[in-house]
Amino acid sequence: MKPIDLRSDTLTQPTPAMREAMANAEVGDDVFEEDPTLKKLETLAAKKIGKESALFVPSGTMGNLISVLSHCQRGDEVLLGDRSHIFVHEVGGMAALGGVHPRILRNNEDGTLPLPLIEQSIRQTDIHYPLTRLICLENTHNFCHGTPLSPEYMDSVAVLAAKYGLKIHLDGARLFNAAVALDVEVETLTRQADSVMFCLSKGLSAPVGSLVSGNRDFIQRARKMRKMVGGGMRQAGHLAAAGLVALENLVERLKDDHQNARLLAEQLTVIKGIELDQTQVKTNIIFFKLNHPEIDGDTFLSRLEAKSIKILMTDPGVFRAVLHREVSREQVETVAQTIKTILAQ
Ligand code: TLP
């Protein structure tokens, strides 16, 4: 039996339409900028994000890295959240590979960075200090319950950035989840940022790839950085073909994942031994704590696995479940029922 896999939306398999589009894609060598399908995807992405230009990259991690490297010089400082993916989950790439200095600000529970904290963290001109260059935001904020950041919040960060001459990079791995959840145009969440990364390979179900967008100059620098870190691809149009299907056909359905996440949260909240704040569930990601006198985190995971259900333990006793295209409403019911049975033992 195929497991119900809630570890991540990255586990989504390509749809039949994607497989067909990939097989039949017209391709060329993208380092020579001669792949027509890739160009089509980059043009569509730039249009959707509301920027001049876009660049296809193999992963979100690479997209964030080359964005930071394209904005910053060695020794520059970047302001970012202590729960941001770039800080926690990207192997310290900006420091290791770019000599860029991360300055960590404590995230609010909703994924925002407090505005006064941002302002007081911006360096004065002083011979002892690095230069503050960039603010990184994340929307939706994965490890802050998948919360979408509002256009109003993004606007207020942009006002600060403009006041101090800073750039903004948006890690929008799940940007389309944010737009769908808030029922706003994507552009209302990207107009504030100088660069935006979003992923095709999460809820949008494409097998590989992310896009970085920004103005023409920025994308020219990013293209060179991508080559430097080994991300210049050849007949990548085969991958882009799946991305086109994702952007054209799979955005609207993200609301089904959000509905399923709410349903799962509703059903888990009432189970004894689970601590979950339903009001925090706004997109496709749920976090909950296990508080059971006899069952610890590892036992819980292995009992779930024995029933063909997979979730992720992100900290001892803390779990993340991510809803996606391959988890149906019926399977949500099965997951909740199984958890109830395990914890009743
Ligand atoms: N997130 C993955 C894991 O790395 C944790 C997941 O399962 O959620 N930004 C954000 C906000 C992300 O959530 C991720 C992936 C990335 C960037 C990196 O994307 P990839 O995996 O394509 O490098």
SSE order and pairing:
Elements: E1 4-5, H1 16-24, H2 36-49, E2 53-57, H3 60-71, E3 77-81, H4 85-89, H5 93-98, E4 101-105, H6 115-121, E5 132-138, H7 151-164, E6 167-172, H8 175-182, E7 195-199, E8 210-214, H9 216-228, H10 237-249, H11 254-269, E9 274-275, E10 285-290, H12 297-306, E11 309-310, E12 312-315, E13 318-322, H13 329-344
Parallel strand pairs: 1-11, 3-4, 3-5, 5-6, 6-7
Antiparallel strand pairs: 2-8, 7-8, 9-10, 10-13, 12-13
Helix pairs in contact: 1-10, 2-10, 3-9, 11-13
This protein binds ligand TLP.
Ligand TLP binds next to helix 3 and helix 4.
Would you kindly provide a written description of the structure presented here, covering whatever features stand out?
There is one protein chain. By secondary structure, this protein is of the alpha/beta class. The protein has two domains: 13-249, Aspartate Aminotransferase, domain 2 (3-Layer(aba) Sandwich); 253-344, Alpha-Beta Complex (Aspartate Aminotransferase, domain 1). The chain is 41% helix and 17% strand. It contains 13 helices and 13 strands. The strands form three sheets. A seven-stranded mixed sheet has the order 2-8-7-6-5-3-4, with helices on both faces. The chain has a four-stranded antiparallel sheet with strand order 9-10-13-12, with helices on one face. The chain is globular. The relative contact order is 0.17. The model has no long low-confidence stretch (mean pLDDT 98). The protein binds ligand TLP. Ligand TLP is lined by residues 8, 10, 59-61, 64, 85, 89, 138, 142, 171, 173, 199, 201, 210.
